[in-house]
Amino acid sequence: LIIVPFRDKMLAHLNHLPELIDIRCTEYPIQSVILEIEKLTNEIQAKNKSVKISILASEDIARSNDNTFVNLQRINSIVFNLIANSIVSINKKKDLCREKREPFSGEIDINISIAKKENQNYWILSIQDNGEGFPIEVLDKIYKEPIKSTKNLSKERLGEGTIYIGFFTQYMQGTIEATNIRSDKLPVGANTIIKIPLIIKKENNND
Question: Cα angle at 129 between 29 and 3, to 5 degrees?
Answer without folding.
Answer: 95
